[in-house]
Amino acid sequence: MAQRLALRRLLSLTPRGPPEPPGRAFGTSVGRRSTFNVQDGSDFQDRVVNSPKPVVVDFHAQWCGPCKILGPRLEKMVAKQEGKVLMAKVDIDDHTDLAIEYEVSAVPTVLAMKNGDVVDKFVGIKDEDQLEAFLKKLIGA
To answer: Which part of the chain is the Thioredoxin domain (predicted)?
Structure first.
């Protein structure tokens, strides 16, 4: 019995890698590092507004058909940038305050942010060429 308790304590203290953040997981390891779900206003401030890298902010909703098309397309294009840009996903139903603050009146709305400022924006679906041009403009490539 004492051995079981000791083993349980040891296992509870042993790090098992970084915990997965709540929310959806993304398919590729590159996408996992460059794409994240915003958890709350404080998380948005820390990871988007205060980010040293440019950030693409995807305002979407679970019920939005065009969002389901644009989201994976945009994630793929961000992953191709090899860490030069990050992507934050904001569900407008969970984060209405952020949607109001950034004047999101339709989804999908995508903002390009650099140094905490919105430098570009589009609403609706874009094809891969348009997304690539949007990202290159943001990165300055």
So the answer is: 14-140
Residue of 64, 85, 87, 88 with catalytic role:
64
Number of domains, the chain: 1
Catalytic residue of the set 55, 56, 57, 67 = 67
- To the query of whether residue 89 is one of the catalytic residues in this protein, the response is no
- What's the CA gap between 78 and 85, in Å, rounded? 7
Range of the domain at 83: 35-139
In this prediction, residue 140 carries a pLDDT of 87
How does pLDDT run across 93-114, given as a tens digit for each residue? 999 999 999 999 999 999 999 9
E strand spans, 7-139: 35-37, 55-60, 86-91, 109-114, 117-123
Active site residue 85: no
Can you tell me the distance from the alpha carbon of 60 to that of 23, in angstroms, rounded to the nearest whole number? 14
3-state secondary structure of 36: strand
What's this model's pTM, rounded to 2 decimal places? 0.77
